[in-house]
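Input structure tokens:
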């Protein structure tokens, strides 16, 4: 049964206190494990949000991987929901993104290898993996290399291959604000650009703009270039053995519905969820519909 984010948020205050583990000086190691925010990967500080929930080895896990030039905040509503359903939530900032330090990684393969190290560091296994946009390519590579670590996978706003237009790639290379403008505009459907939001008090277009503007210099270009150069995705998709859900926005201009459906037809054990009207920013435009899809497989 669907539980909307609006009704879910009404109980946040009462639930929040139940999600905070009690701390004590003698239990600091355990507390760090339970209330994880930062950990180290390759000696670099890495940020991981757990949706304000608790981490418990007896619970199921779900890992969220964000898209190009953005960070874990893409998943804030979904991660809070699953945290309150007693899942271990790991919404990780890739190197140089959000609150994580380091330099951006140069390829999707490098990002997947980095994720493998990160999840081993966290002790995560048998997890659901949710990737948005560039994160969907990372998830695809990860599922190809480490299928035994996954029980299911969700690809949101995906495409194989995932070419990037020259105007966007060149603007990002020059660190021009035009890159943010293009990416943000093309990420939202026509309906979303007119205004309105299922999340009260939030302007989708401005939120997306600010999210891109928070990115560090050269990060968006590095990410887009990695997507553009990821050319063996079809071969990987044919060999995926993980149960997969692909969520498609019918007005997605960043990764077109036609390309997303090609992915679905290539992965053996795969089904689709189509959202209309919806663009590439599905977690913002259709949060409840996306949540319903995630609940069905995560």
């Amino acid at each position: 049964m669907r539980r909307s984010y609006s009704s879910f948020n009404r109980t946040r205050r009462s639930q929040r206190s139940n999600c905070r583990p009690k701390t004590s000086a003698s239990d600091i190691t355990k507390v760090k494990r339970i209330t994880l925010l930062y950990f180290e990967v390759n000696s670099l500080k890495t940020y991981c949000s757990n949706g304000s929930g608790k981490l418990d080895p007896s619970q199921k896990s779900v890992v969220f991987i964000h898209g190009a030039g953005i960070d874990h905040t893409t998943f804030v509503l979904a991660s809070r929901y699953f945290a309150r359903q007693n899942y271990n939530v790991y919404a990780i900032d890739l190197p140089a993104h959000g609150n994580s330090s380091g330099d951006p990684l140069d390829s999707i393969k490098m990002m997947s290898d980095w994720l493998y190290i990160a999840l081993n560091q966290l002790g995560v296994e048998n997890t659901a993996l949710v990737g948005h946009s560039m994160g969907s390519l990372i998830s695809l590579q990860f599922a190809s290399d480490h299928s035994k670590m996954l029980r299911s996978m969700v690809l949101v706003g995906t495409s194989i291959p995932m070419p990037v237009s020259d105007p966007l790639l060149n603007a990002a290379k020059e660190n021009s604000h035009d890159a943010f403008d293009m990416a943000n505009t093309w990420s939202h459907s026509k309906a979303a650009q007119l205004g309105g939001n299922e999340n009260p008090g939030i302007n989708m277009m401005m939120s997306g703009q600010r999210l891109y503007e928070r990115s560090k210099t050269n990060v968006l270009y590095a990410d887009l270039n990695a997507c553009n150069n990821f050319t063996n995705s079809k071969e990987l998709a044919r060999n995926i053995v993980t149960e997969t859900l692909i969520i498609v926005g019918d007005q997605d201009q960043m990764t077109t519905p036609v390309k997303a459906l090609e992915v679905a037809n290539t992965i053996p054990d795969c089904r689709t969820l189509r959202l209309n009207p919806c663009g590439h920013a599905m977690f913002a435009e259709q949060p409840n519909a996306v949540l319903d899809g995630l609940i069905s497989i995560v």
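The longest strand covers residues 150-156. Residues 5-34 have pLDDT under 50 and may be disordered.
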